[in-house]
Design a protein that fits this description.
Layout lengths: L5 H10 L20 E2 L2 H6 L2 E7 L5 E10 L4 E10 L4 E4 L7 E6 L5 E5 L6 E5 L8 E2 L7 E6 L5 E8 L7 H13 L13 E2 L2 E2 L4 E9 L5 E7 L19 E3 L5 E7 L11 E7 L7 E2 L8 E6 L5 E6 L11 E6 L10 E2 L12 E2 L5 E8 L2 E8 L5 E3 L5 E8 L2 E8 L2 E9 L6 E2 L5 H4 L2 E2 L3 E7 L5 E7 L10 E7 L17 H5 L4 E6 L8 H5 L8 H16 L3 E11 L1 H12 L6 E5 L5 H7 L3 H7 L8 H6 L13 E6 L7 H13 L4 E6 L9 H19 L2
Parallel strand pairs: 1-32, 35-36, 35-37, 37-38, 38-39, 39-40
Antiparallel strand pairs: 2-3, 3-4, 4-5, 6-7, 7-8, 8-9, 10-11, 11-14, 12-13, 14-15, 16-17, 17-18, 18-19, 20-21, 21-22, 22-23, 24-25, 25-26, 26-27, 28-29, 29-30, 30-31, 33-34, 34-36
């Protein structure tokens, strides 16, 4: 779902402070002492730490922990608390349903979303007074996300409802029930989207409503329709959350992100910031109408004087660099012109939070195969890295430190305390210690080489668990998706290199041109060049790995990837077959032409190929895998989700049909209940077991 000047970017990253590395999670065994290699059965059962939030007094961290109910084939979320002074951790919510999204009120009470009542509603727990959690909302429809006002006297909630019914949520529920009871099932559409990600459109929109809160913290009175007149979703779909909604510190206004849909929704990336009075007394005002590209992620400084947000500059490009913008807010509420905070910082910001004094902004960004936290000086734009190697997924400010969720290629996420002064990070949580006791992970190393245009390209090698010097190991060569993404130093729950290392493979993966974290020009380099520049990087990276690591067995190598990685597997089948014994293609593009008319987010294909297929047919054919099927000869496993509307199921079926028609050994693994990702625990186990069986079949000695 994205370098300008590579040398400058590398110099800047080197100059950014020398940061202290994180330590591995407790419980993980070294390779030499491993009792059992890491595998998918361990992977799907790991507890997942996320979304830390620090209490107003700075003493307590609330966070979400996801566990797996394997028999029920689902994840279950609960809320935990960590006492920063005592160093203790305890579970806060239990019982039926899932609880997540903990948010502190100014009085120290904790709000959260929970399905314990049978639908997802907002709940509140008074930690000082004891007792049970109490419902804040009792709406007829699920609450998707919510944001509390600074004073704790109001709440904004997002609910999927019918815009023509306004704030009458009961009427929306009644219409949905009546539709469900109908015997006929046909739906007439007049514009795109007709479906998005994994859901067919039903006429509802995520709309924002406001409620007053009584002295017990419960919603009271009638709903105020805050997104009145917005033909779009608040927050955005499919992945937007409460980071797209904020209050001004005085509680007078709510600022949110929305894209006006109209007839261009499926090819527009024009998200704007909208400001609305908290009581809904006026319709939303567009604050960023002058930018036809994406504006999102609003935050306001504690004194109410600065509005900061992230903005792209090129309409229609989902992987453009997110620049950090600030605008002054006058006493009369007027909003001044936008200023880019750090125009020379060639990274793309992924979240924002002001320091208490408003002088710094904290953000995260991909950076040379890591995902770090940076402190950005608002006045000068100077950027300083606060974390070292690994992946910081989320963070929260706590007095003189940041609380971060951090993981690496050999350690699932834990909470760490990172002092702003730069001292060694302190691990706060010990989740998965018992599960990982005696589990072995493969050692890993980042390497670099000269890729396309002789520019520096990075990759990683992961040794197999139980590595023995002098022995040769089969290669799993993984190609990441996006394509504007990064397969880096992080612990992934779907494409985790350690599951292959645990099965005896050496793993190689490359951040080819098009990857993020190396400057915007590096990211841009893939557009219009899906089949040449990245392929050159992959070829040179594979050769560099073979030259550097003598344990790689080039006679037993397999390539695999998903999404763009699946496209590249199809492209490799007809353009770089020599090194491989077999291939694995998960949700990959087979025919660029049909993809252009069947995918839902058209802006992606149209940007990557320079326009629509009917205007630029040659661009779609230049690197089209379907045109090279006559050269296919490698065995291939095809995996496809039936609910994948990003790369529809027909792409996978066509790939398998081509293989079968040519008489090439092949398998199709179809998940009718999965989207672009495989999310259900038992499906994940089947996926891994099928993939590994295929790889072992073709690399057996």
């Amino acid at each position: 779902m994205p370098l300008a000047r590579l040398a400058a970017a590398l110099a800047m990253a080197t100059a950014a402070a020398a940061v202290v590395p994180f330590t591995p999670a407790a419980g993980a065994a070294s390779v030499s002492s491993a009792v059992k290699p890491f595998d998918v059965q361990t992977l799907v059962r790991l507890e997942r730490v996320a979304d830390p939030r620090v209490s107003p007094n700075g003493r307590t961290v609330a966070y979400t922990l996801r566990t797996t109910d394997y028999d029920a084939n689902k994840g279950v979320q609960s809320i935990w608390l960590h006492d920063l002074d005592a160093g203790t951790t305890r579970r806060l919510t239990a019982g039926t349903g899932s609880s997540h999204s903990p948010r502190w009120a100014s009085d120290g009470s904790l709000y959260f979303l929970s399905t314990r009542s049978g639908s997802q509603q907002v709940w509140r727990l008074n930690l000082d007074g004891g007792g049970e959690a109490q419902p804040v909302t009792r709406l007829p429809l699920d609450v998707g996300s919510y944001v509390l006002s600074p004073a704790g006297d109001r709440i904004a909630v997002s609910v999927d409802s019918f815009p023509d019914l306004g704030a009458d949520l009961a009427a929306s529920k009644q219409r949905l029930d009546e539709r469900a009871a109908q015997k006929n099932s046909g739906v007439v559409y007049e514009r795109l989207f007709i479906r998005h990600w994994d859901t067919w459109k039903d006429g509802t929109r995520a709309q924002l409503f406001g409620f007053a809160l009584d002295d017990q913290g419960a919603a009271t009175g009638n709903a105020q329709w805050l997104s009145n007149g917005i033909d779009g979703d608040v927050p955005s779909k499919p992945f937007g959350g409460d980071e797209e909604i904020t209050w001004t510190p005085d509680g007078r206004f709510v600022i949110f992100t929305a894209r006006i849909a109209g007839s261009s929704e499926s090819w527009s990336t024009n998200f704007d910031l909208w400001r609305v009075p908290a009581d809904g007394s006026a319709k939303p005002e567009n604050l960023t109408a002058d930018n036809p590209a994406t504006d999102t992620g609003p935050v306001v400084s504690a004194d109410g004087r600065l509005l900061a947000y992230r903005a792209m500059k090129r309409p229609g490009f989902e992987a453009d660099r997110y620049a950090i913008m600030v605008r002054e807010i006058g006493r009369d509420g007027s909003v001044g012109p936008a200023r880019e905070v750090a125009p020379k910082w060639d990274r793309s910001a992924t979240s924002l939070q002001f320091s208490p004094d408003g002088r710094k902004l904290y953000t995260t960004a991909d950076d040379l195969g890591q995902h770090r936290v940076f402190a950005i000086d608002v006045a000068s734009g100077k950027a300083r890295a606060l974390t070292g190697d690994g992946q910081v997924e989320s963070f929260a400010l706590a007095r003189d430190a940041l609380i971060v969720t951090h993981n690496t290629l050999a350690s699932p996420a834990q909470l760490f305390k990172v002092r702003l002064s730069g001292s060694a990070p302190l691990q706060l949580t010990q989740h998965n210690a018992a599960t990982l006791a005696g589990i072995g992970f493969g050692d890993y190393e980042q390497f670099s080489f000269k890729g396309w245009n002789d520019e520096k390209v990075y990759g990683y090698v992961v040794k197999p668990v139980g590595f023995v010097a002098g022995k040769k190991y089969p290669i799993a060569f993984i190609i990441h998706g996006g394509p504007q993404g990064s397969m880096a130093n992080d612990f992934h729950y779907r494409w985790n290199p350690q599951t292959y290392a645990g099965a005896g493979f050496a793993v190689v993966f490359i951040d080819f041109h098009g990857s993020t974290g190396y400057g915007q020009a590096f990211t841009d380099a893939i557009s219009g060049h899906w089949g040449d520049r990245p392929l050159e990087d992959l070829q040179k990276g594979y050769a560099a790995a073979l030259a550097k690591y003598d344990f790689l067995d080039d006679k037993r190598a397999v390539a695999l990837g998903a999404s763009y990685g699946g496209y590249m597997v199809n492209w490799i089948a007809g353009n770089w077959a020599a090194p491989w014994k077999a291939l694995v293609n998960h949700d990959g593009v087979f025919d660029n032409r049909s993809m252009a008319y069947s995918t839902e987010e058209l802006w992606f294909d149209e940007w990557e190929h320079g326009g629509t297929q009917y205007e630029h047919p040659a661009a779609y054919e230049q690197f089209n895998p379907v045109n090279h099927v006559a050269k296919w000869k490698l065995p291939m496993l095809v995996v496809q989700g039936g609910l994948d509307f990003r790369i529809p199921v027909e792409q996978g079926i066509a790939t398998f049909t081509a293989l079968q028609r040519r008489g090439i050994p092949s398998q199709l693994l179809h998940f009718p209940d999965e989207n672009h990702w495989v999310l259900k625990p038992q499906n994940s186990v089947q996926w891994h077991e099928t993939v590994l069986a295929w790889l072992k079949r073709w690399t057996a000695e």
